[in-house]
Structure formats: structure tokens, C-alpha cells
């Protein structure tokens, strides 16, 4: 999950030239928002071991989506990464469900596979 935050921070910083090429150019609000959010994402990448942080990860995307008020491209980043975090929440729940049922490969007992 920390890697996703680092990737998202890179995408956010790469959005600076996209926003500057837009209709209004790179305003102080848009530049400050993007750089500030990149810093927040990097800081969040170091906090991924805490309980309940996955919901913070999804919640920060709401801030990005609200950033569409500044520039549409910022909101687009939020929508894309909200989907990524929603998928991460689903996959995490699925692994937990399979773990609780003993269905993960390392939980299977039986004879070792025969080598050829």
C-alpha cells in the first residue's frame, strides 16, 4: 500500500505540467494543492502499518475528487486512484476471508508435489 502512495505522489507531481497547460494555467491554488497532496501521500506511505489506515487511504481520494473544483485533471486523478483503493480494499477482504477459511495455498496440508 505504501508503494501505491508513492506511485500516486509521482502521478500528482506529473500532473503539474498538465494543469499548467490548461485553460487557466498553473495557479497558486492548483500548484499548492498538488504539491501539498504529494507531500501528504509520501507521509501516508510511512503510516501504512497502522490499523484502519486503509480507510484513510480511500478517504484522501475524496479530497482529490474535491480538487476538481480547482482543475478537472485533479479530480480525474482522484477518481482513478479511488478505484485503485476500492480494489485494494476488496482484495484485502478477499484474502482475509480465504485466510479465515484456511483456503490459502500455504494453509493447505497434503503430500508435497512430486518433482518430475
UniProtKB/TrEMBL annotation:
Stored Pfam families: DUF4233
Record key words, sorted: Membrane, Transmembrane, Transmembrane helix
Top-level taxon of the source organism: Bacteria
Transmembrane domains' residue ranges: 31-47, 54-70, 76-93
Alphabetical list of InterPro entries matching this protein: DUF4233
Protein name: DUF4233 domain-containing protein
